[in-house]
Amino acid sequence: MEVRRRTLETFGGISDSTDALVLDPRGLLLLGNRGGVAGTEVVFDRPALLRPADLGPGKSWSSEGKAGTLNYELEGRAIGAGAFESELGKFDDCLSVQTRLTLSGLPLPRTGSRAAGLWRTGPDGSCSSS
């Protein structure tokens, strides 16, 4: 499946990206990402585990591998449970999930991290982010 995002960046610009995902017995896996004006593609060699199949309150998980020429480590945890309401409706049984993706191996000796924020996942697999 593909998930397409249009994001308002902190500097005021808009970025578009597309994630390639698969749902398998391990959970929801990120296979690759395409984004930016040039359509740069990054393939995750050892797909990144975005959400484990046995996700529940208090659950933590991690995965690591290559993201293109970089190394990646993704860590996640379910930090809360309860109701959630948005413009899409009210969901009574949701989990708040926090993930952090760390990339290393850049040409310059530095590591970049991106906190993905909170994901609220309903029992039917629907989710929203903030």
Overall 3D shape: globular
Range of helix content: under 10%
How much of the sequence lies in strands comes to over 45%
Based on CA atoms alone, the radius of gyration comes out at 15 Å
Please mark out the parts with pLDDT under 50 across 5 or more consecutive residues, or reply none.
108-130
What's the helix-strand series? EEEEEEEEE
Strand order of the largest sheet: 1-2-3-4-5-6-7-8-9
* Total number of domains: 1
N- and C-termini, Cα separation: 21 Å
Give me the number of helical elements: 0
Overall pLDDT confidence: 81
Question: What's the count of strands?
Answer: 9
Largest sheet: 9 strands, antiparallel
Assign the structural class, choosing from mainly alpha, mainly beta, alpha/beta, alpha+beta, or little secondary structure. mainly beta
Folded structure, characterized:
This protein is mainly beta and 130 residues long. It has one domain. It is 0% helix and 72% strand. It contains no helices and 9 strands. The protein has strands spanning 2-8, 14-24, 27-35, 40-52, 60-67, 70-86, 89-104, 112-121, 127-129. Strands 1-2-3-4-5-6-7-8-9 form a 9-stranded antiparallel β-sheet, with no helix packed on it. Strand 7 and strand 8 form a beta hairpin.
